[in-house]
Design goal:
569 residues; 8-stranded mixed beta sheet; 16 strands; 14% strand; binds phosphoenolpyruvate; binds magnesium ion; transferase; kinase; transport; phosphoenolpyruvate-protein phosphotransferase activity; sugar transport
């Protein structure tokens, strides 16, 4: 028995065999030519066999998969033997290229062609790029890339997951996640919480866990036990039989009826429909860049109108906060960002891309206004990565010019939290992006597992910046006058911290007006919030603010919320 420690990012205790995510397939050399002892026909046959093997393997996996993963695996299976792909590769083989390089080039050509067609066809681009990597792996005898297939449920171990891996992660098969990299705000953490999967990130020693080893993970404590004993087995059984949470009532309040609306974070119309079913009171963050990840050209206005409209449609008469493109750093969009920047998290990201690619933001606001006009949702618009009051003012002018009445900003740069009053006197609302606010306050990359203890939204420095933002909003309201149309100044939180039920109570106690989270967290946050009065929440907030460390703040608050243990949270 061996215990590996990491950072618990999604609560739950499960037991299962480990299975490792293989490394990405390396690009075959551009000048790879087949030898004189091989023939064109022989190489084409090798390619065809590999493509058929990939197709059959994906079909087999699709048969036992569920939900989105099933659909994606089936679509990719069809693509594997697509005549257009194989014909294009065949031409390169005729010119002497190895099948590996030939299919790599052909995949690129087909992807570019699909991209140029736009709409549904453009969405298939990722499938082509995925399938070409699978064919190359098959030709070279390498393990297929992406989430591994298995007939039995398993705990996935990896260095880190990419947003694209989400599509093939089947929660019926993957019952827990362990990564050696990644912090509490990494993609793995966000994905795990949205799927409700117990997860530990930043478990540096987990790279040495062999496939098939039995693992126990505790996603609240942040521990991974290899070859667990009786105590862990019992803990997993107890967790499986825990008190189940009642579904979210559809109204976030404290025990004495103080309202803290609970909203959802989404990336598509489909997510929004699921959020409505889960009882979200509105959308607190629509990450528009998620609608266009993997695109290398700017989506047209009409395409954007459709994408945003599908979210607005799910919340008639309800608040929907849409965020303009937050491209850059870990979410590059080739048509907006320069991936060769030496320090992308501190580079041209979010609102700053308006400096380097003028016009894209204006067209996006135009599309948002058209979509808002066609639906009943109460649409609020915010810009990411705002650092100064001038930027906030310029963004507000752009919004009103586009006919969007409620402009706001993300507060995720410490400078913006410090200058909250000046910023909030120029816009109608703020939403605290605690994922970035934490990484920038602590100067700790949110993707880095090794710095995960710094990258913790419980850090009192982060909590103090949140308080400063709320105080700034109240001061801006007072300056505007309570009867002004500019009041009130809503301050929400849409970072992952809002999905931590204990921290959500602290945020409410700090005076945050709304909390936005993955729909999965609505029930647990709603239940824990309803277990305290607003006065108790304020006391817990004071306790957390006064702590000297993140660990001290967390422990002090959690010990006063007994419901957490009962619910296994
Ligand atoms: C944040 O930074 O907290 C946030 C919500 O934005 P994102 O995670 O998309 O950067
Ligand atoms: Mg952010």
């Amino acid at each position: 028995m061996r215990t590996i420690t990491g950072i618990g990012v999604s609560a739950g205790r499960v037991l299962g065999p480990s299975l490792r995510m293989p490394p990405p397939v390396p690009e075959p050399a551009a000048d790879a030519r087949f030898g004189a002892d091989q023939t064109v026909d022989g190489e084409k046959a090798r390619l065809k066999d590999a493509a058929e093997d990939v197709r059959d393997d994906l079909r087999h996996r699709a048969e036992t998969a569920s939900g989105d993963a099933k659909a994606v695996l089936n679509a990719t299976a069809m693509m594997a033997t697509d005549p257009m792909l194989l014909k294009a590769a065949g031409k390169h083989i005729n010119a002497g290229m190895t099948p590996e390089r030939a299919v790599w080039e052909a995949g690129m050509e087909v992807a570019a062609m699909l991209q140029s067609l736009g709409g549904y066809m453009a969405e298939r681009t990722q499938d082509v790029l995925d399938v070409r990597a699978r064919i190359v792996a098959q030709l070279d005898g390498l393990p297929p890339p992406g989430i591994p297939g298995s007939d039995v449920p398993f705990i996935l171990t990896a260095e880190e997951l990419a947003p694209a891996d989400t599509a093939t992660l089947d929660p019926a098969k993957v019952i827990g996640l362990v990564t050696s990299g990644g912090g509490p705000q990494s993609h793995t953490a966000i994905l795990a919480r949205s799927l409700g999967l117990p997860a530990v990130v930043g478990a540096v020693e987990s790279d040495s866990i062999p496939d098939g080893a039995e693992l126990f993970i505790d996603g609240a404590a942040g521990t991974v036990v290899v070859e667990p004993g009786t105590a862990e087995r019992e803990a997993a059984q107890k967790y499986a039989a825990r008190v189940s949470l009642p579904p979210f009532s559809g109204k976030g309040t404290t025990s004495d009826g103080y309202a803290v609306p609970l909203l959802a974070n989404v990336g598509s119309g489909k997510d929004a429909r699921a959020a409505a079913v889960a009882g979200a009171e509105g959308i607190g963050l629509l990450r528009t860049e998620f609608c266009f990840l993997g695109r290398d050209s700017e989506p047209g206005v009409e395409e954007q109108v459709q994408a945003y409209g599908s979210v607005f449609e799910a919340f008639p008469g309800r608040k929907v906060v849409i965020r303009t493109l937050d491209a850059g750093a870990d979410k590059p969009l080739p048509f907006l960002t320069d991936t060769t920047e030496p320090n992308p998290a501190l580079g041209v990201r979010g609102y700053r891309t308006d400096r380097t690619s003028p016009g894209v933001l204006a067209r996006q606001l135009e599309a948002i206004a058209i979509a808002a006009g066609a639906h009943e949702a109460d649409v609020w618009v915010m810009a990411p990565m705002i650092a100064t009051a001038d930027e906030a003012a310029d963004f507000a002018v752009m919004c009103t010019g586009a006919g969007l009445a409620i402009p706001g900003v993300m507060i995720e740069v410490p400078a913006a939290a410090v200058m909250a009053q000046a910023i909030l006197s120029r816009v109608r609302f703020a939403s605290l992006g605690t994922n970035d606010l934490t990484q920038y306050t602590m100067a700790a990359d949110r993707q880095l597992g090794s710095l995960a203890s710094l990258n913790d939204p419980w850090q009192p420095a982060v909590l103090r910046l949140i308080k400063n933002t709320v105080d700034g909003a109240r001061a801006a309201e007072a300056a505007a006058g309570s009867d002004s149309v500019e009041s009130p100044k809503n301050v929400g939180v849409c970072g992952e911290s809002a999905a931590d039920p204990a921290l959500a109570v602290v945020l409410a106690g700090l005076g945050v007006n709304t909390l936005s989270m993955t729909p999965r967290a609505l029930a647990s946050v709603g239940a824990v919030l309803a277990s305290v009065s607003i006065a108790e929440a304020k006391d817990l907030a004071s306790l957390a603010l006064a702590a000297a460390s993140a660990a001290e703040a967390r422990t002090a608050v959690r010990s006063r919320l007994p419901l957490l243990e009962e619910l296994g949270l």
